[in-house]
Specification:
single chain; seven-stranded mixed beta sheet; mainly beta; 0% helix; four-stranded antiparallel beta sheet
């Protein structure tokens, strides 16, 4: 079982930046795709970003395009989420996730293809 550990959440002001980190326990291989989702109180879990460990362009949810950047360190099986120009509506628990298999790009936006999840890290943006 792959264990994912997120870190880097916190309380920031609107317009600030924050970087989240997701590492696998012991640096174990996580799977072909790693992604970030978020869930605000009373809302469904929302796709934020995903990246294939083999390379290629990353994928972003519409609400974060141009502000968030996902990147990876394959050697360390670690994924980062750089969040710039944060808004109050970015407030949520952010979850790291990894797939067991690779999928066509259109599937990577859905929670159902991700097999492993972290415990989440809270990001709060004050206006």
């Amino acid at each position: 079982q792959v264990q994912l550990v997120e870190s880097g959440g916190g309380l920031v002001r609107a317009g600030d930046s924050l970087t989240l980190t997701c590492a696998t326990s012991g640096g174990a291989y996580s799977g072909p795709v790693m992604g970030w989702f978020r869930q605000a109180p009373g809302k469904e879990r929302e796709f934020v970003a995903a990246i294939r460990l083999s390379g290629g362009s990353p994928y972003y949810g519409d609400s974060v395009k141009g502000r968030f950047t996902i990147s990876r360190d394959n050697a360390a099986n670690t994924v980062y989420l750089q969040m710039n120009s944060l808004k109050s509506e970015d407030t949520a628990v952010y979850y790291c996730a990894a797939t067991r298999y690779d999928y066509v790009s259109s599937n990577l936006y859905y929670t159902r293809v991700y097999d492993h999840w972290g415990q989440g890290t809270q990001v709060t943006v004050s206006s």
